[in-house]
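Researcher: Before we compare anything, I want clean individual predictions. No alignment, no superposition, just each chain on its own. First chain goes here; please echo the sequence and then give the structure tokens.
Model: Echoing the first chain and its structure:
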Amino acid sequence: MQEEIIVGLDIGTTKICCVVGEVSGNEINIIGVGKHPSVGLRKGVVVNIESTVQSIKKAVEDAELMAGCEITSAYVGIAGGHVSGFNSRGIVAIKGNEIRRHDVERVQDAARAVAIPMDREVIHVLPQEYIVDDQFGIMDPIGMSGVRLEAKVHIVTGAVTSANNLIKCTNQAGLDVCDIVLESLASGETVLADEEKELGAALIDLGGGTTDLAIFAGKNIKHTFVLALGGHNLTNDIAIGLRAPIGDAEAIKKQFGTCLFENVGPEEIIEVPGMGGRKSRKLSRQILAEILEPRMEEIFTLVRREIYRAGMENVMASGLVLTGGSSLLDGVTEIAESVFNLPTRLGKPTGIGGLVDVVNNPIYSTGVGLVLWGAKNQAQKKFRIRDSNIFNRILDRMKKWFKDII
């Protein structure tokens, strides 16, 4: 039974979410969900090991209780401002006129042979397409005839220390790490339709500490980007603007928050708790909109600037998909449409069975996506990391993963 259980662990800045999926044939059923407030992370990066471990344990315990099974391993999501992605290509000559698996491995090694700083390591090497003797758009070149093989890949790198700390926290919470996966890629597994990936779409995951961008086209990943701004910045703005405690600011944001000033009437009043024993005050809800609207516009403008910098502005033919907890804020979709001038929709987990009603919320997109990602790669052997050579183990696993998807 254990071989059929796949667990996604979304270690976020504001919450830690554990999603348990059961694979039966081609179906993936969600059988357990655990969620706990995250303590110990800032902007997607671990800043307190002990607090993070305790939060992970509580989320996993809740998921175990609901699923009725013991959780021993998980696919872990990674984000943070330290994550960056770039495109690369490699070329090799073919011996014997027929392309074999060994040739594909060689061309991928050639594509990833780029100068990377010592403090960074490769998290993903994602094939985009192969080119055989100037024939473009080939997804699987094995068995084809040719004398030259070229590969276009997207390489995602992250800070070694940040990934090490994530893995260390997961291990100390009693779990094996099957893989670390970029959170926006995981979300894309469950939120985007195949037609959107084919035609071209941008997925923006609005999390608590980070805003993750992933651009898909031709069913492949074209660009990734992580912005170290998120829902926590909105909460902080409210706390400063209304002079309210952080906890109360978060509650006000969830209950009354809106990004559209024009949708709020002057008669709408909210009550703001005082700090340090001061009396609570009554304020117009319009003030809340005046705080949130410019911050949301700023986040989308920075993402738009990155899209133009990467030359991807004409790739997103089917539009934008927003997901993540902050996408639930009133008016976010309208702000995104006005900034990007593209059709925008809210993305929720799809392609699953079981507890669909429970996870039918953008806050679970990454957790469910990690389960789907794991299901695609479940043949991989689970491992437990205890030594210092963590990334070499993960790189070996990545090489095996390539063999499976080609």
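Researcher: Okay. Second chain, same rules.
Model: Second chain and its structure:
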Amino acid sequence: MSTPNVSGETQHHPVRNQIRGVGYFSRIGPGIVTGAADDDPSGIGTYSQTGAQFGYRLLWAAPVLLPFAFAIQETCARLALVSGQGLARVIKRRMPNWVLYLTVFLVALANTVNIAADLSSMAAVTLMFVHIPQLVAVLIIALAVGIAEIFIPYHQYARVLRWLCLSLISYVAVLAVANVDWPSAVIGLTHISFAWNRIDIAAIIAIAGTTISPYLFFWQAAEEIEETGAAPDTSQSHIKAMRGDVLVGMFSGVFVMFAIMTTTAATLNVQGITQINSPEQAAQALQPIAGNAAGILFALGILGTGLLAVPVLAGSTAYAVSEAMGWRESLERKPSQAKQFYAVIAASMVIAIALNFLGVNPMRSLIVAALLNGLTAPLLMAIIWWLARDKQLLGEWTSPWWSTALVGIGAILMAALPILWLFAPA
């Protein structure tokens, strides 16, 4: 339960204020889970393909995207902490209904397609260890994740999600055993370079859309108030603690992106393997080049991040839809207390399972999800930029100039990328 702060308000994630010392991992807030969920199996597939196809050339995307990713997630957390409401409720309160319903529809659609692709990748990786039909593996994983999210209270489920974040370490371990050309990696990391053609721009769109995904916006805001309901917390110390939590989370997610791109550049690209159709294919391709341990670690990372990301995807959809419709929403409530909320989670999982049984190509699913995210992200970032400057909503706690500048510039750049793609040569 929460504890009151000095102003008499209820404090969100109170243990986050004691972020130092022994027990750090049990005290962090939702920022680390959000950052880790950014590296879902579909993201791993995107980063693997980028490293295999372009080598070290696009590594600069990691440091460039980090400040934008941090700013947008910090703003979403700020909106929730100050208003005591989730993102969709804030949009409903301050924006026209058509804006709300359009963004929620696009996010829900993209999330469901993304879940289907993630389940397919997780099932394919499972077959590397257990010989069962892939569709059976999809069903087992989906049921396990869905049942856990619906029936385990949030305060217990959050601990599970935090421990699943450790699966990201597997990619740091793979990076350690790969024979990286570090001088080339440093050049790729510090020099912005891309060719003026649709192939390079499409890769940048994919990386940006995967790293700055709308489902993370809704999840971050919802989890900021999950433990305390809707009581705002505007203490300076907690705003600072939230910012540190979000920074650690997004840095970890972006660093893993760098690790995956660097690893596949050092192993697959140098061997002439430039086409990766799925994350599990990347894991299999690593084995003869970097050793069985590297391939197994890569595969286990896909499973771990998938078990983390799928409930985040389904949960963010449920929060967005429930807030838009005015339904009760909370992972802390029992299913009987938030029937519509949990029905949305169940529906997302069922549709994702159905897409797999219908034989929908997982890579096409990822492309569709990336396109939907690409359309939704700049629109939603523009909305969040507007809300972050709304003094009637946030009072003295409006976002600082540097944060609104980053969110605004990020929205413009992400909106401009598809236009640049249209005019670029093939």
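Researcher: What stands out in the second chain?
Model: The CA atoms of residues 17 and 241 lie 6 Å apart. Additionally, Residues 3-98+153-298+359-423 form one domain.
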